[in-house]
Amino acid sequence: MVRTETASTYTLDSSTVQQGFFFTGATITDKVGTCAQDFSHKLSDNRQAITITDTAENSGTACLIFNVECNGKAYKSADPQIINKDEN
After folding, report:
1. Which of 48, 77, 78, 82 can bridge 66 by disulfide, Cβ–Cβ 3.0-4.6 Å?
2. How many angstroms separate the CA atoms of 58 and 38, rounded?
3. Count of alpha carbons within 13 Å of 27, Cβ hemisphere only?
């Protein structure tokens, strides 16, 4: 649950990187409300890390999917559902 602007960095562990996995991006969609527009992502560390920024400007629940690739095949993570709530 997010109530204020937040940035979180997610990294692949070394054994995952050794297998050839790397981040290709993130897919963020609305589940409830219109908060998906509050999110952005940036790849770093040779695509072994991704930072997700949430401005928390709008209330709602978003679906956040991490996109990765390994040996030419794309994979998507499970949805760790994020809820934005007003500060009050």
Report:
1. 77
2. 7
3. 10
Query: Any bridge partners for residue 66, and if so which?
Result: 26
Q: Per-residue pLDDT tens for 49-78? A: 999 999 988 989 888 999 999 999 999 988
> Is residue 62 classed as helix, strand or coil in its secondary structure?
strand
Asked if residues 45 and 85 have their Cβ atoms less than 8 Å apart, the reply is no
CB 24 within 8 A of CB 1: no
In which region does residue 77 sit, left (phi positive, over 0), alpha (psi from -120 to 50) or beta (all else)? Answer: beta
CB-based contact 21:68 (threshold 8 Å)? yes
